[in-house]
Amino acid sequence: MAERISEKNRERFTSRLEAFSDLVFGFSLSLLATRLDVPAKMTDIFDSARWLAIIGTFGLVCRFWLEHYRIFRHHFVAEMLDAVVNFAFLFGIAVLPYAVQTFLRFKAVPAFTLYVGDFSLLLATLAVLRVRSLRQRRDDPDFADRLREWRRSLTQLFIALFMTGMLIPLSRKSATLASALGDLDWYILGGFAAIILLARVGVRRLPAFLAYPARAAPR
Hints:
The relative contact order is 0.09. This protein has helices at about 1-35, 50-70, 80-105, 110-135, 145-170, 175-200. By secondary structure, the protein is mostly helical. The protein is about 75% helix and about 0% strand.
């Protein structure tokens, strides 16, 4: 009886955590729309840079929501560590409208650092949450789906680390943002391509801590 009550409380905690997360997502998306303040000149109404940044960020937030939903849909039961990681993830979602606004206004290296650093936080925390969810799905017979989720977690984690590492040499440059990115363009494209390729081709099985607890995972 005590175990059933404890399990019910954990499920209720997870449900409240997911509902709170949806609230933060909605608040962040609504704030993104308010970043489209009325410009001083009529010719700036359809400024492509501003619209691309807002629409692109809006789409990414929607993508993050979908990824977050996929983690919780597999009867994921959150523990306190999961809640802490989830709150860090939500902090990144809440800060995103501010990061977009500073990037659009200044278009400088510090503003870009904040914007990219925020995405690094989102990717890293999302990857950790997914791995925590996969640990609870070790009895799930859908090995192909779990392997895809493991690859996605590795891809997002290494992209977050790569983006953080990219900011170190970028922050040391005193040139304009366009010039600084121009010096690193091939490095950035090559890094992203290598991470995606290695995750798809090099990862063919689940690690031991995510495999079946009593037997080896099927090939």
